[in-house]
Amino acid sequence: MLSNLRLCECQVKITLRQIAVFESVARTGSVAGAAEEIGLSPSAASMSLKDFETHLGVRLFARSGRRLLLSDQGRPMLEMARRVLVQVADMEALSLPEEVRGRLRIGAVASVADHVLPRLCATFMRRHPGVRMELRVQPSQDVMEGVRNMAFDIGFVGSPVNSSYLDAQPWRRDALAVCAAPEHPLVGRGEMPLAALADEAWVLEKTQSSERIFFTVEVLKSLNSLNIVLEADSVEAIKRAVRDGAGLACLSRMAVEDEVARGELALLDIPELRFTRIVSLISRRDTPLPAAARAFHAFASQLAEA
């Protein structure tokens, strides 16, 4: 009986702030990171975490260098905390039952984030003006990790999804596009082997995107080396450099469709690089989505073309 009373007292003392700080520290690996994300001072976040551990009677984290890692006792607590936060977000959204409201966090690969999602997000927000959206551009593996640890509500990735934590729905098809300035000597020559590009200059993505990885693997099967004259993190910078004659590029077809349609870039037909990938819409398998994320997931699913 006494133990039950103590449990009840413990539950009363736990606050949503403590739960939110705990979840954010687990995701960011530091109290400072959690404080910045939630909008608290580092001392207030530290006190919330300390009080949370005191009320539960367990150490939730162990320090590893400069990071805080979940302890054995903390790991099962994290899943429960995340479910509580999702349910609270849904409760808040119910204040206006006829309207979808709340914050929606999306992670996506550059080709989707830059060239597909802006229009979709604008349409969705016109239908649901109570939703506030955050869109972050990251490589596929980072997006998957972000969805898994709940930094993102949903994600769009271009790499295969092999995680028991994630649900993946085929959403769009994308292809590699070898592009050049319209006046480049190779434009208009029709199909040509990859070996014909041995002496060409290349402008490529610096980040380890799925397009860059596949391109490098396939090219090195036929060529001993690549003449890379420029690497950039920005796809827009790469396209501009190619338009200005710096060299060839290999990008997502989604990323260059508008420029090709306007005649600003031309495509080369290279059989070895005829690669189609599936862009997947992903979410966590074991955690209910907040109302805004559920609505956007359903909206995006209606526009699937895979």
Descriptive account of the structure:
Residues 14-71 form the HTH lysR-type domain. The chain has 306 residues and is α/β, with parallel strands linked by helices. It folds into 3 domains: 2-81, Arc Repressor Mutant, subunit A (Orthogonal Bundle); 88-172 and 278-302, Periplasmic binding protein-like II (D-Maltodextrin-Binding Protein, domain 2, 3-Layer(aba) Sandwich), CATH 3.40.190; 173-276, Periplasmic binding protein-like II (D-Maltodextrin-Binding Protein, domain 2), CATH 3.40.190.10. 45% of the residues lie in helices and 23% in strands. The protein is built from 12 helices and 11 strands. Strand 1 (61-64) and strand 2 (67-70) form a beta hairpin. Helix 2 (16-28) crosses helix 4 (42-56), helix 2 (16-28) packs across helix 5 (74-93) and helix 3 (31-38) packs across helix 4 (42-56). Mean pLDDT is 87; it is low at 1-12.
